[in-house]
Amino acid sequence: MVMKKQISIQSFFEKYPDDESCYRYLAEQKWKDGFSCQKCGCNEYGKGYTLYARRCKSCRYDESVTANTMFHKCKFGIHKAFMALFRIGSKKKGISSTELSNEIDVNQKTAWLFRRKAQQAMKSKSPVILEGQVDIDEFGVGGHRSNMQGRSLEGKKHAQVAVEVKDGGRMGRAYALAIADFTTPSLRRVFDWCVHPMADVRVDGFYGYRALMAEYPNMGYELSDGGENFKEIHLVILNMKNWLRGIHHHCSKQHFENYLDEFFYRFNRRGKNIRKNILGNLINRFVSSPPLTYKDIMELCGLSG
Questions:
Q1: What is the pTM assigned to this prediction?
Q2: In the prediction, which pLDDT does 252 show?
Q3: 112: in domain
Q4: What CATH number did the domain enclosing 240 receive?
């Protein structure tokens, strides 16, 4: 996987030099289709109390630019929030919460929470359906023992990956989902999520896929041969593992799919011109998403606050 040069920090400060420039951009994005009062639906407004806020002319409700977005009640300034998204999205290999806390001068828990929000924003709500040749495989992280061979569940987190392979071995888009086991209901998750029924699916012959042949008539089996016959998808898996171990060192089972979302969000935006737009895309996703609290994140991951 080739990652292009990241966006320069100079270009970030040229576009967003201060809080006002950030609020202005948020206002442009939030109300690009026109203003509609959250309370009464009125479309007419005047100047609000805070910078770039809008006040409904009917019910007088004052709405800030961060209200009803993921930026709502952010524990640090909006310029720091933009900088955090810049570092999370544009840095070639991402950034750990510890490193992020040092860069934007907040405590580690605050940085951790913001990274979790970013990961939620990176989640594909409607993936591009993979067509043509699509290779599918599973991989595990953690729990390694020298005497454990094959698909072992003990002590590991597992995911299933689907990669679109184009002419000449070029990789198109790819997606991954966490799986609980290797039963057919678990293995069909990624198929239902992002694979076209008529795609030329290639798997390594694992028996769990056989029940899906009727729904995916172009599915074929090929022995992995130590990865030689699935070079593209094994390269993606290797990069994913190296990224997780090298940048984050460890992730819990509850948060595993969030890390998959983050990795493949960047993977699918690895072209030079696309990478230039990552920050804008992330900001827009924050604007179009509802507020997310620490308690919300814990509940999403099946944890208590």
A1: 0.85
A2: 78
A3: no
A4: 3.30.420.10
